[in-house]
From TrEMBL:
SUPFAM superfamilies: NAD(P)-binding Rossmann-fold domains (SSF51735). NCBIfam families: PRK07231.1. Belongs to the short-chain dehydrogenases/reductases (SDR) family. The lineage of its organism: Bacteria, Bacillati, Actinomycetota, Actinomycetes, Streptosporangiales. InterPro entries: NAD(P)-bd_dom_sf (IPR036291), SDR_fam (IPR002347). Keywords: Oxidoreductase. This is SDR family oxidoreductase. GO terms for molecular function: oxidoreductase activity. CDD domains: SDR_c.
Amino acid sequence: MVTGGASGIGRAVAAAFAAAGDRVVIADRDEDGAAAAAGEIGCAAVALDVTDAASVAAGAARAAELAGPVEVLVNNAGVVAGGGPLTALPLEVFDTVVAVNLRGTFTVTQAVANQMVEHGTKGRIVNVSSIGARQPTAGLGHYEATKAAVDALTRTAALELAAHGIRVNGVAPGPVHTPMTAGLMDDPQARAAWEARIPLGRIAGTGDVAPLVLFLASDQAAHITGAIVQVDGGQLLT
């Protein structure tokens, strides 16, 4: 199950799992977008709003009905919702980002982890974080704070769920060309400024992130848990 799978990184991850022969469920609050992506990829879709605990419970149950108990969860749903210095950031922007990125990751993890434990599933959870959790960018403090919290949840969940055979890891991309960042990518000056911070010299595509998610969810990563792995072209080195 991939949250926020209707577009961007989530869609690429869902497509990669489907191409590998896995049963995939896209979970997204954009019901039409999820259905369209699922139709193109060849998988199932459920309506799920990560900010609503009842919606999460219903969506996780529906995913199990469609494809069997969830074995792999990818917590990808996330927003930026705006930007600006902390001294001027509207409180509603902060609250929205916390609700989706932090509370949403917690709520979906809780629901699906309980499902895994109930069914005796030695599952895998992969959380999509950001290098912003470790490298600040002015104007994005609200977003980066939630991603730092997601990293903390990842480590705690890995510790608590290990006894059930459930592994929990994270991927931390730098900037990625997605619909959420389209405005930035279409601004030559802004794009050049970001690329100047990246030793490998380019903004990532979704295809740079998806393989790592699949690896962490695979048996090849059987002894990896509690790790957050960056995919940033070396940006954290600068």
